[in-house]
Amino acid sequence: MILEIDEIHIKHDRETGLIAIIALDKVNEYGACIGGTRFMPYQSIEKAIEDAVCLAKAMSLKTRLGDLNLSGGKAVLMKPKVITDKVAYLKTFGRFVESLNGKFITGCDSGTIEEDIKIMASETQYVSGLSTTHGRDDMSYFTALGVTSAMQAAVKIKFGNDALKDLRVLITGIGKVGYYLAHTLHQLGCKLILSDIVSERAKLCADQLGAEHIEPENIYDIDYEIFAPCALGKIFTASNVDKIPAEIICGSANNQLENKAIDQTLYDHNICYIPDFIASMGGVVYAAKRYFGAPFSEVENYISSHVYSLTKDVCTMSKKQKIPTSFIAQQLATNIGQGRL
Ligand code: NAD
After folding, report:
1. Average pLDDT in the 34-61 region?
2. Are residues 20 and 92 in the same domain?
3. Which of 9, 99, 129, 338 is deepest in the core (most CB within 10 A)?
4. Residues in contact with ligand 1 (CB, 6 Å cut-off)
């Protein structure tokens, strides 16, 4: 795979075991990139770099379509087998972020929690998206809010009515976003089926909400109208696309399609796929707007209305032009970028 990106910064610290990669896409457009910090095991540094680059590029699509005056970036921390001092590890990473002098602004992502970001924040001013609401991880909450708005718009286009009540929704990945999404959709009257590779997470949430629980290997054996993938990427592949029973796919997981051709296949199967960089933009919109000092309520309204109308426009254009949604959305992002040159 050929990787093209403006900047990659790598830090190895023997003492703490930190191996961190920060990828910055289109850094000169605004002088700063925003994106979360991911913490997970990787088979090799090449795989970690590839992930950071792909994720940073996906962040640029979100920042452009979210009209955020920042470009996309991503940090990947290669999770070691053992960390003897996690606080020292995170502080070392915080100093690495600080050393970039504001070129990279970060927050939570898969594998990191708010407490981690607060530790990093003791060493760097370039973090955003921390909670203001007691007891709630606001960034993941706002990501889930954006997924809900995108889902409502998709339902409106597909079924002619934006009420989610009584629709069967499968959520895979009951982590930070999946958990909030499950609670929000439950309040809207959806019939939920929850799944996680850590079964206990899905079971616990299903028990709280009176929802169904299913093991990940069985998700293609049951019926549901909406599939909300909220775990990791590259889940839709040439070998499983025929098995998807859903009419709508709308979830927070980044880079959901194994390759670009899958979007066309989903379109050919009459599945309305909401590009992940639209469905999951709520978190980065929250982090960027708060970084620039926007009031909390303004951010909440912006996420709901912006994600809803963007999704509606993309789905409408896709229907009219008979072109897959990702292609339309990428085109929109490119046009916005060219408009800024
Ligand atoms: P998380 O680490 O808190 O949760 C992910 C969950 O998915 C975990 O419970 C994990 O056990 C589960 N999982 C992993 N592989 C699975 C599989 N194959 N099947 C079922 N479950 C599986 O992560 P998160 O912060 O909730 O993010 C979820 C996704 O959304 C990630 O792809 C992330 O990049 C993306 N995202 C998150 C945010 C945010 O605000 N947290 C913002 C934008 C995008």
Report:
1. 95
2. yes
3. 129
4. 108-111, 139-140, 143, 172-178, 195-198, 201, 216, 230-233, 252-254, 280, 283
